[in-house]
Amino acid sequence: MKIGLIDVDSHNYPNLALMKISAWHKSRGDTVEWWWSDMVHYDVVYMSKVFSNEYSADVQEPINADRVIKGGTGYAIDLENGVEVYNKERDPVLPPEIENICPDYSIYPELAKDTANGFLTRGCPRGCAFCHVAKKEGRKSCQVAELAEFWRGQRNIQIMDPNILACKDRAKLLEQLAASRAYVDFNQGLDIRLTDRDVADLIGRIRVQRLHFAWDNPKDDLRPYFQRFSEWYRRKDPSKKVVYVLTNFGSTLDEDLFRIYTLRDLGYDPYVMIYNKSSAPQEIRYLQRWCNNRLIFRAQPDFSKYDPRRG
Ligand code: SF4
């Protein structure tokens, strides 16, 4: 069979589902290539879209294909009254024989260069209102793979798990990452509330460029958790501990600033994320520019004195 692939997002990030689909078809002797023209006939074309329409516009379906299969979170999100709503029925799961295969990293020779991507766990017990993970993967973090299933000795590993620390097998999985000696990026962040001294020690043995956490809800007082992790974790440099601060989702500017200043005082680098950016007030965009530009943030520590016209 002749298979065409379309990465609808075309962002600078490899699409894991397409890499697995490619690996599976190649294992059956099929020809796989990026779809490039309606002049070419394909037996099946797969279109995958990870991001919502706000960040990634859809593209036209190919017409010269016997079958077109669309999937990905990006096809399942609608914006209703400024809030993203996830529709599971529009986001089909991959069959186990594809889900569990080692990805074909060769389709992204640059983006996936010397980097393994995958999930060790799926699901998250928290069910945050702005997040689709609970609906998509369930309200429990469960192991779905061993590291060796998608890591082939690459120098870098990107772990895409939504909440690996909520998994009962977390110690074993963190041990696998430490033993790899690869540089690990937990790109969905770690849940600071689920850290303890053992976890801090284990993370301290993993080679990471920087850790990511989140403080999304200002109603949650996460100060004690950040405080104690800071004491336990061996790396003290704030740039190695970045914390996403969600804004424009029911918080006030004062609540946003409280989290930003608190995190800075505790030795972390806050990083402002804007929910539904097209609806965000100008002030929040200025807040993001001020906070996320480290030169500005360090030069002018007080947002009330930041003059956006002067950069
Ligand atoms: S903790 Fe993270 S992954 Fe879990 S529901 Fe909240 S935002 Fe989603």
* SS element count, helices: 9
Helix content percent band: 25-40%
Radius of gyration: 21 Å
Low-confidence stretches: none
H and E string: EHEEEEEHEEHEEHEHEEHEHEHH
Instruction: Name the bound molecules.
Output: iron/sulfur cluster
User: What's the overall geometry?
Assistant: globular
CA-CA gap between termini? 55 Å
Quote the average pLDDT: 94
What structural class should be given to the helix and strand makeup?
alpha/beta
Largest sheet: 4 strands, parallel
Strand content: 15-25%
Number of strands: 15
Q: What's the arrangement of strands in the largest beta sheet?
A: 2-1-3-4
Summary keywords:
binds iron/sulfur cluster; four-stranded parallel β-sheet; globular; 311 residues; alpha/beta; 26% helix
Task: Give a short overview.
Helix content is 26%, strand content 22%. It is α/β, with parallel strands linked by helices. The mean pLDDT is 94.
Structure description:
Helix 4 links the parallel strand 10 and strand 11 (183-186). The protein has helices spanning 16-27, 96-99, 133-137, 170-180, 197-205, 223-232, 253-265, 282-292, 294-299, and strands at residues 2-7, 31-34, 42-48, 65-71, 77-80, 83-86, 115-118, 121-122, 142-143, 156-159, 183-186, 207-208, 211-215, 241-247, 269-274. The chain is an alpha/beta fold and 311 residues long. The protein has a domain at 1-102. Helix 4 packs parallel to helix 5. Bound molecules: iron/sulfur cluster. Iron/sulfur cluster (SF4) binds next to helix 3.
